């Protein structure tokens, strides 16, 4: 969370980058990024983190958190990001803060009954 907040404070331009995210890699590295707001549906910070990690050769993420660049509050992942996270990192844990209490939840708990490409149709 400290890494995400640092990125939000130091690099987020308020009109473009409204959320910062940080992920812990399997080897302990922290990868950070910001969202790219655009009316056509720019990528969320979580998705930019995944790309930034891959750009550093990091393909295993174990934890993720996103914070608002406006007030530094924890932002839960949107539905699209939950699906991407469960597809790419089924064991990842996500920091969320419902009712003000910080929790670290497995992604499967944030997307019960998730779509699976291997599920019968
Ligand atoms: Zn999202």
SSE diagram, text form:
Elements: H1 2-11, E1 19-25, E2 30-34, H2 45-54, E3 61-68, H3 79-88, E4 93-96, E5 103-106, H4 107-110
Parallel strand pairs: 3-4
Antiparallel strand pairs: 1-2, 1-3, 4-5
Bound molecules: zinc ion.
Residues 44, 46, 77-78, 80-81 line the site of zinc ion.
Feature tags:
Cytidine Deaminase, domain 2; 121 residues; 5-stranded mixed β-sheet; 5 strands; 4 helices; alpha+beta; single chain; binds zinc ion
Q: How many helical elements?
A: 4
Helical fraction equals: 25-40%
- The order of strands across the largest sheet is 2-1-3-4-5
Unreliable segments of 5+ consecutive residues: none
Distance between the termini: 39 Å
Describe the structure.
- This protein has 121 residues and is of the alpha+beta class.
- The protein has one domain (2-110): Cytidine Deaminase, domain 2 (3-Layer(aba) Sandwich), CATH 3.40.140.10.
- Helix content is 28%, strand content 23%.
- The protein has 4 helices and 5 strands, in the order H-E-E-H-E-H-E-E-H.
- The chain has helices at 2-11, 45-54, 79-88, 107-110, and strands at 19-25, 30-34, 61-68, 93-96, 103-106.
- It has a 5-stranded mixed sheet.
- The longest helix is centred in the first third of the chain and has 10 residues, at 2-11.
- The model has no long low-confidence stretch (mean pLDDT 95).
- Zinc ion is lined by residues 44, 46, 77-78, 80-81.
Would you kindly provide a brief summary of this structure?
With 121 residues, the protein is α+β, with helices and mostly antiparallel strands.
């Amino acid at each position: 969370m400290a890494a995400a907040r640092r990125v939000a404070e130091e690099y987020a331009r308020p009109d473009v980058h409204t959320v910062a995210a940080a992920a812990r890699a399997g080897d302990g590295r922290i990868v950070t990024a910001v969202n790219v707001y655009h009316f056509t549906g720019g990528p969320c910070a979580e998705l930019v983190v995944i790309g930034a990690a891959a750009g550093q050769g990091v393909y295993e993420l174990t934890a993720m958190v996103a914070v608002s660049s406006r007030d530094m509050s924890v932002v839960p992942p949107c539905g699209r990001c939950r699906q991407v996270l469960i597809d790419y990192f089924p064991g990842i844990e996500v920091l969320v803060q419902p009712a003000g209490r910080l929790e670290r939840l497995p992604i499967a708990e944030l997307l019960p009954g998730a779509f699976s490409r291997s599920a019968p149709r």
